[in-house]
Design brief:
Elements lengths: L1 H22 L7 E12 L2 E13 L7 E4 L3 E6 L5 E6 L1 E5 L4 E11 L5 E10 L4 E4 L3 E4 L5 E10 L5 E9 L12
Antiparallel strand pairs: 1-2, 2-3, 2-4, 3-6, 4-5, 5-7, 6-7, 7-8, 8-9, 8-10, 9-11, 10-11, 11-12
Amino acid sequence: MALVLAVTLFACEGNYQNVKKLSLSDGAPIAEGKNINFKYTDSGKLITNLLAAQLLDYSNLEFPYKEFPKGIEVLFWDENGKRSTVNADYAIQYDKTGLVDLRDNVVLVTADSVILKATQLYWDQKNKWVFTDQPYQIKFKDGSYNDGARFDGNQDFTIFLSRKNQGVQLIDKNKIEDVK
């Protein structure tokens, strides 16, 4: 009798999981959130604050992702407490790859006053790299600026590779070494 009861109990649990999967319509999110205010801390120190009007969680799919169809604002603080911000009208975060796709009116302002505006921007969280193949404008803290069609660089913009661009670069003559 105990064996029959155990088999029945495990069979019901398996059936419950299958019924739960069937109750979701194809392509529907597993969860939806509104007025998201997610704070990430490390050792009691605020590192990131994500704000979004709507979050659709598709972690139930084979290639899981989170979608922010009504835009996103992310605030980042560095180890010195300086804040950077990213805003976009639309965003997707892919769980497996760590890639974030920001679209429409993307504005990134770094703690040291670099301002980037783009129609689309990708952020590779694992490699700490940002890139786009869409038009962008960037203004660096020294007043240099660049308008271009595509770029890639590290997330703090100490490495910045631009393609098909025009702009103004300011050069400090005191830092130039004579090359002979």
